[in-house]
Amino acid sequence: MKFATTLALGVAPHAIGKDHPQGVIGGCHANYYFTYPPQGRWPLNSDFVSRYYARWKEYPNFQAEGAYTGLHMLKSAIERANKLTGEWPDDEAIISQLESLSYVGPGGYVYFRPDNHQGYKDAMTGFTKNYPAYQFQTMDTSRVIVVPIRSITAPPGWKGNDPTRTYDWINKTWPKVTG
Fold it and tell me: ∠84-85-91 over CA atoms, to 5°?
């Protein structure tokens, strides 16, 4: 049996049991799963997972990583705006510092685009696998697919309304597949 799902790994890791099929192409909501980037390759993720597990006795999900990253980006923007104004910054000063901000988080590089105030990071997906170390299905770290976000997101200035802007960009600019 072969099948794919967009969010097989999009829940709290421990919510998926060992009975989940192996080898399923499984998307990760918000492009984060606690085993990727793998141990030793991205120290920020290794440290985040270790500290999170020590405190909560479970592995972090995409919401935990997103909250952690988002709060650190906001903190950075507030501190930068404070240096410019010398006082607690207003909303516009904070927004100006978030625009084009890049941040290195547990799940990789994140940046805010000034044209739409959205945070972006590379998309990733992978295959499910049973590892003896976990009581639940995880991502096979040897079979992860990473797609640069710039390859699947409409560029700044592309006309259209969300959420159809990227679809329109893909439809008009990507080569057509024929068979």
Answer: 100
C-alpha of 163 from chain center: 18
8 A C-beta contact, residue 177 and residue 135? no
Q: Are 64 and 52 in contact (CB under 8 A)?
A: yes
pTM greater than the 0.85 cutoff: yes
Cβ pair 26, 128 in contact under 8 A: yes
DSSP letters of 61-101?
-HHHHHHHHHHHHHHHHHHHHHHHHSS---HHHHHHHHTT-
**Whole-angstrom distance, CA of residue 109 vs CA of residue 92:** 24
Task: Report the share of the chain in percent with pLDDT over 70.
Answer: 96
